[in-house]
Amino acid sequence: MSAAAFAKQSFDYIIVGGGTAGLVLAARLSEDPNVTVGVLEAGENHLDDVLVDAPNLFMQMLGKEAYDWKYKTVPQKNGIHGWVRGKMLGGSSGINFNMFSMASRQDLDNWVELGNEGWGFDDLAPYYRKFEQYHAAENTLADKINNKYLDKSLRGTEGPIHEVWPKTCLNAGYPMPKDPRTGSAIGGFNQLLTVNPEHARRSYAAREYYQPNAHRENLSVLTGALVTKIELEKNEGEEVVATGVSFSVKGTSHTVHANKEVIVCGGTVNSPQVLELSGIGSRDVLGKAGVKQVVELPSVGENLNDHTACALAVQVKDEFPTGEALLRNPELIQQAMQAYLEHKTGPFASATSTTGFASLSLVDPHLENPRAHIESLLSSFQVDDPAGRNSLLAKQLENPKEAVCQTIALPIGANITNVSDPASLFVHDAPGNWLIIGACSTRSLSRGSIHISSSNPTEQPTIDPAYNTHPLDVDLQARSILHVASLANVEPLASHLVRDEHGDPIVIPNMREKGIVFPKTLGQARKLVEVATVTEYHPIGTCAMLPREKGGVVNAECRVYGTKNVRVVDASVFPTHVQGNIVSLVYAVAENAADIIKREK
């Protein structure tokens, strides 16, 4: 369909953004043949694109305009950070690392405590089962551990989304993990992946939600369409109503009419941008950008919260090949590509999945009085927090059943300090084989913002994640990376690493040049956090689901305050962060939101 033909129609529901959440809503709402759904997506359709499909080729998309929005933050303590966000049909589910994890029970029950009935752990559990299809793996130690702790009765079997480390963690004192679907995920294991094993293909929103339903006459999807604003009017009762959406295709402007609702699914960056461009937001922000205010809603774009990671790259013995063995040999790369294209096998057919979750008692068993330590750091940095979110998160961080960090191990080296260019993050010239071991935050207290600085929709918004501005984040990240470093001295991982004359693992040269040593003290770990903090690409919160007076942008039905028929459904509505990779929760949130909308018809 051409842009002109799309604009001539009117749709009951116009979905702004054909990403992870947007395509879930499009599929579910268009199940009713009497309902019309139109989707506007700025990126293109990359179905059957090998860079998207091959689970282990995702790094080849980073920094490429055809796939990536290529966002940049304002300067942080260790430089400007590059933010990868999927610019394609399927959004970031088409460009992520394929890792699939689960929020804890308390993560989601926090949402209810903050005033969002119907969004607790038990409320969302059926929606996790609805969208997933679990495939058990076999034959390796990791698989045996996974198959022990994964309870098939807690997992979906019919949904559209497919899905030396574990032993080292067990030897380090980690418990045998339970299925995260029970509400807790402490332990080390091989993470589930969003990969369809039948075809060895990435399982993502465009493949599983759009493609099977593309034939529906009541569903229209327009790609290459940049939304410029929502058309808003005030009715006689001074209620703000969305009448349609304006968008641009190749520089030509169009407007399409909405009969019932406009649902914004642009993600944590684009959703607040679209609201502000439309006149919904802070008077001060909109005034400086030259946008006429329609709805006073100062929390739009605020409460930005992200997971951060801190990692070391250490040398692996030559007899244990890592990613370098492949990347430095063009002939091997060609063979690997041929193996994937012809047989769906080889190194590109799966993604790395070694991970784990560690509580504060595991990370630092010698820390005296963890509660007093956390409360001291919490009180030392007072922030405006009318909803009381930081107090909720602090209670979680001291709970031995809750994780303070997600541990990772990636069989490749990196230039961890190159935070501005994600495409070159895993590129280095150090000879030998290398392994990344790292710790990722689970519930950061530092909060930033995303706001427009211009009325021009093609101009990127100002992104300030405020990394490590809260002292508790710095403290827990330092303790976490010190803990992860200790795993390098636990068998069987210990025997795989090259050691220096002091018996310490050898740190990659590009990190040593920044003054990084293999950390053995909390002070050395803090130095590493200072230099090598990177994003985990899990931003949330800029259109938070909270009471309006406590900093909310949407209510528990995802409706934007001050409007009659505008909703936001994506990770931007998360009121607090959750542990691990967030794509699973985005799917569950969208499935729940779809049912809410259907019930209101």
Automatic annotation (TrEMBL):
PROSITE patterns: GMC_OXRED_1 (PS00623), GMC_OXRED_2 (PS00624). The keyword Flavoprotein applies. InterPro entries: FAD/NAD-bd_sf, GMC_OxRdtase, GMC_OxRdtase_N, GMC_OxRtase_C. Keywords: FAD, Flavoprotein. This is GMC oxidoreductase. Pfam families: GMC_oxred_C (PF05199), GMC_oxred_N (PF00732). Residues 86-109, 267-281 form the Glucose-methanol-choline oxidoreductase N-terminal domain. It comes from the Eukaryota. The keyword Mitochondrion does not apply. Its cofactor is FAD. FAD binds at residue 227. GO terms for molecular function: flavin adenine dinucleotide binding; oxidoreductase activity, acting on CH-OH group of donors. Belongs to the GMC oxidoreductase family.
